[in-house]
């Protein structure tokens, strides 16, 4: 598979390292998901059974899922004080829950690998895969063939969200505020074109 696979994989060598900036990227791809993004997802998608969050970070997605009554298995390769650390998702061979919901790391082709591996694992459980992806992922020429061969069942554009660790890194740079995201949902048994809809992050931003 060309679009959803690269030879680069995460390893456990950097477990417990603190997060800092490397050029324009934050080390370990730590970009926590604002809660309104997950709330927006749950307003449109239902998940029957347990959910695995394999890049849980500080629990940004997992805690919202749990708040909505879901049983969540939270793991990450790195330690952010939440869930099970030292767990390399790409080396897991047995599903830990029925569904997989995550904001995968994007650098070095990792998002492609996460999608591919999540689909392989949920093929064993009959569960859904929900991935928060940069909207540019939909238009990358190296991925077109993979979107066509294994299209998501649904794609939700989510407006007005910023995935950035503001508590540790301050306000996001202006260029980062321009990033836009989609939830891509793969469902068992789906065939044919993906449905597309819009979700408002601001609608689910609670203070």
UniProtKB/TrEMBL annotation:
Spans through the membrane: none
Entry superkingdom: Bacteria
Gene Ontology biological process: methylation
Coiled coil ranges: none
GO molecular function, one term: methyltransferase activity
The protein's name: Methyltransferase
Source taxonomy: Bacteria, Pseudomonadati, Pseudomonadota, Alphaproteobacteria, Hyphomicrobiales
């Amino acid at each position: 598979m060309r679009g959803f696979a690269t030879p680069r994989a995460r390893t456990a060598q950097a477990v417990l390292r603190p997060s800092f900036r490397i050029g324009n990227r934050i080390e370990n791809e730590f970009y926590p998901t604002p809660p309104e993004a997950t709330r927006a997802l749950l307003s449109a998608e239902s998940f029957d059974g347990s959910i695995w969050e394999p890049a849980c970070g500080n629990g940004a997605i997992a805690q919202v899922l749990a708040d909505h009554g879901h049983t969540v298995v939270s793991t990450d390769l790195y330690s952010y004080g939440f869930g099970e650390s030292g767990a390399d998702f790409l080396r897991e061979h047995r599903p830990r829950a029925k569904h997989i919901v995550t904001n995968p790391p994007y650098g070095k082709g990792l998002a492609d690998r996460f999608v591919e591996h999540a689909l392989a694992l949920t093929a064993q459980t009959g569960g859904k895969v929900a991935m928060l992806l940069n909207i540019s992922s939909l238009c990358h020429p190296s991925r077109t063939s993979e979107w066509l061969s294994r299209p998501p069942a649904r794609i939700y554009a989510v407006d007005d969200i910023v995935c950035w660790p503001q508590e540790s890194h301050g306000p996001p740079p202006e260029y980062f505020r321009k990033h836009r995201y989609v939830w891509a949902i793969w469902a068992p048994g789906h065939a044919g074109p993906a449905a597309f809809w819009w979700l408002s992050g601001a609608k689910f931003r609670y203070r």
